[in-house]
Amino acid sequence: MSSESPLPLIVSSPSGAGKTTLTARLLKEIPELRFSVSHTTRKPRQNEQNGREYHFVDRQQFLRLIEQGAFLEWAEVHGNLYGTGKAELERGERPRGIIFDIDHQGARQIKSAAPDAVAVFILPPSMAILEQRLRGRASEDEDTVQKRFGVALREIEHYGLFDYVLVNEELEEATKQLVSIFRAEECRRHRAARHAERLLAEGRGFGGLKPPSSGASSPLPLK
Ligand code: ADP
Ligand code: 5GP
Questions:
Q1: Which ligand 1 atom is the nearest neighbour of the CA of 174?
Q2: Whole-prediction pTM value?
Q3: At CB < 8 A and 24+ separation, what contacts does 177-180 make?
Q4: How confident is the model at residue 139 (pLDDT cuts 50, 70, 90)?
Q5: Are 82 and 102 in contact (CB under 8 A)?
Q6: Staple partner for 168: which of 34, 70, 83, 174, CB 3.0–4.6 Å?
Q7: Domains of the chain from N-terminus onward
Q8: Ligand 2 atom at minimum distance from 107 CA
Q9: Beta-bridge mates of residue 122
Q10: Cβ distance 36 to 87 under 8 Å?
């Protein structure tokens, strides 16, 4: 139903649980989705490109954007500032959904601004595996890994805020679950209401079905 507004899909997790990997796979599976590119004061990782994963800005620029009221939500995470620009909602063609990869503080803010937003929390199978994945990513120094692992427990404490909780053990299975969540949420009654009402108006405009013209043979065998 292309006339419906894009479905806001929030994806959160403790760092290292796999939300970047899973959202990339979701985007590949449903290319009509759009990833909301946040602003951050964190330094880019080796494989990150300005404007693709994030808009990388310094603290001063970020504070100026806050003053200008440019953010839909923002928060301090792991000592850096992160925020979703209001302009992200307007950018480009209207997508089927917008993915927000944000923390629980941002999820709370987006949920209160857009109550139909669907929030998914991703958990690792175990804390030991979470630590392995954080190290395996090899994009951060030991100090950052320790800091992020330490914050993970506090992130997990907020799982109750989310509509869905997904355990990312086997990647294929977790991807299927995330895709299924999006597809099922698209079929929520309130999202289909406008279409259903349009069909009703159209049907009523017809004034009912016309009886078959006399002499026309029935397509069904009559007994
Ligand atoms: P996050 O975005 O939540 O911080 P990433 O998506 O960067 O996490 O994943 C952290 C690391 O774990 C990456 O190296 C990624 O390839 C790996 N990873 C993600 N999901 C799985 C999985 N189901 N099985 C094994 N490794 C995974
Ligand atoms: P990372 O530095 O690993 O990319 O992200 C660190 C944390 O910041 C993750 O939990 C991620 O979801 C969160 N984050 C990224 N962008 C935003 C944002 O725009 N707003 C908020 N609130 N959190 C964000």
A1: 23
A2: 0.89
A3: 178/11, 178/22, 178/23, 178/25, 178/26, 178/120, 179/26, 179/29, 179/30
A4: low
A5: yes
A6: 174
A7: 7-35+97-205 (3.40.50.300)
A8: 22
A9: 166
A10: no
